[in-house]
Specification:
- The chain has one domain: Rossmann fold, CATH 3.40.50.
- It contains 8 helices and 7 strands, in the order βαβαβαβαβαβαααβ.
- It has a 7-stranded parallel sheet with strand order 3-2-1-4-5-6-7, with helices on both faces.
Length: about 260
């Protein structure tokens, strides 16, 4: 195994959140310099940057609204100057959106989820690929979800955005392959992070969720981060254009484990 990323520059959007912070730290532990992209409160990003710098690599906080192409361009230009030209992009930023049935949801809120999860990922991938194809090297990893393929009642915008991001991954991979650039999707299942604490902190909610997972438990952020580092490394040099599901078997539909 050669999970070494020394000299590489990574940008992680949503880089100081639950999974994002694990991704950022794991990439740094493998030797990459890391740009922690965020929006809103800068304190968590700055604290994470200090943690990463303590590992002996470079890190900066990058504030940007990824739904704004001009802001994304400025973020990548800042990273070029202060960190190095991007080798690894992790499109991790995303929102669930409001819970409502499709015929009841506010259209502007529905659109906002698409703008963050799909358009935002595209804007960042576009800037990254502009740099990668010229250098004939680089990896874009889009964080999708098991809901790329599993419907989720009340969250049609989220599922549509993740399914769209899965197909965007395949198309970008097809376009970029001849330039030596890989594009992948990583789809976590139910991972124990602060964003879903209301579920796993409730014994009944946790028991119900675990029934949906053949392995019978939620995943941990570091379990996803380890896979991410592998995908970003040369150990995955022949892997592109696919979604890697890391979900404890959730996409196996555990209700059917004893027959239909």
């Amino acid at each position: 195994m050669t999970l070494k990323l020394e000299g590489k520059t990574a940008i992680v959007t949503g880089g100081s959140g639950g999974l994002g912070s694990s991704f950022s730290l794991a990439l740094a532990a493998a030797g990459a310099n890391v740009g922690v992209a965020f929006i809103g409160n800068p304190a968590p990003a700055k604290a994470l940057v200090a943690q990463i710098q303590a590992l002996g690599v470079k890190s900066i906080a990058l504030e940007a609204d990824i739904t704004d192409p001009a802001a994304v361009k400025a973020m990548f230009n800042q990273a070029d100057t202060e960190l190095g030209i991007v080798d690894i992009l992790v499109n991790n930023a995303g929102i669930d959106g409001v819970r409502a049935r499709a015929w009841e949801v506010d259209a502007a809120k529905w659109r906002k989820t698409l703008e963050v999860n799909l358009f935002g990922a595209f804007h960042c991938a576009q800037e990254a690929l502009l740099r990668m194809v010229v250098r004939r090297s680089g990896v874009v990893i889009n964080i999708t979800s098991v809901h790329e393929v599993i419907p989720w009642g009340g969250y049609s915008a989220y599922t549509a955005s993740k399914a769209g991001l899965g197909m965007l991954t395949k198309t970008l991979a097809q376009e970029a392959a001849e330039f030596g650039v890989r594009v992948l999707a990583l789809a976590p299942g139910a991972i124990q992070t602060p964003i879903n604490q209301s579920v796993w902190s409730d014994p009944n909610g946790l028991a119900d969720l675990n029934k949906k997972i053949p392995m019978g438990r939620m995943g941990q952020p570091d379990e996803i981060a380890k896979i991410l580092v592998n995908l970003a490394s040369d150990d995955s040099s022949y892997l592109t254009g696919t979604t890697v599901f890391v979900d404890g078997g959730m996409t196996l539909y555990s209700d059917f484990s004893h027959g239909g």
